[in-house]
Amino acid sequence: PSDGGKLLVVPMVGSHWLSMQKVVEKLSERGHEVVVLMPEVSWQMKTTPGYTVKTYPVSQTLEELDGSL
C-alpha cells in the first residue's frame, strides 16, 4: 500500500503509450488517482477501468492519420 496521489498523464500516440499503459495501470492499482488525456482519434490508445480517460478533439480523422504515415 502507498499514499496515492493524483496524476495527469499525457502520452504520445503510438509505441510510447504501449509501454506507458502498464505503468499507468500499476500506479492506479497502488492507489493513485490517474487521469489520462488522449486525443479522440488514435491508433492504439485503449482504455481500461483502472484509470479515468479524458479526450480532446483533433482535426484529423483516422484515415488522414493513416495516410500521414
Number of domains: 1
Major β-sheet, in short? 3 strands, parallel
Count of helices?
A: 2
Class inferred from helices and paired strands? alpha/beta
- Return the average pLDDT rounded to an integer: 79
- The overall strand count is 3
Report the portion of residues in β strands: 15-25%
| CA-based gyration radius | 13 Å
- Give me the strand/helix succession: EHEEH
N→C terminal distance: 43 Å
Spans of at least 5 consecutive residues whose pLDDT stays below 50 are none
Shape: elongated
Gist?
By secondary structure, the protein is α/β, with parallel strands linked by helices. 32% of the residues lie in helices and 23% in strands. It comes from Thinocorus orbignyianus.
SSE topology:
Layout: E1 6-9, H1 15-29, E2 33-39, E3 52-56, H2 62-68
Parallel strand pairs: 1-2, 2-3
Walkthrough of the structure:
With 69 residues, this protein is of the alpha/beta class. It has one domain (4-67). Helices cover 32% and strands 23% of the residues. The protein is built from two helices and three strands; from the N terminus they run βαββα. It has helices spanning 15-29, 62-68, and strands at 6-9, 33-39, 52-56. Strands 1-2-3 form a three-stranded parallel beta sheet, covered by helices on one side. The radius of gyration is 13 Å and the shape is elongated. Keywords: Transferase. It comes from Thinocorus orbignyianus. This is UD18 glucuronosyltransferase. InterPro entries: UDP_glucos_trans. Pfam families: UDPGT.
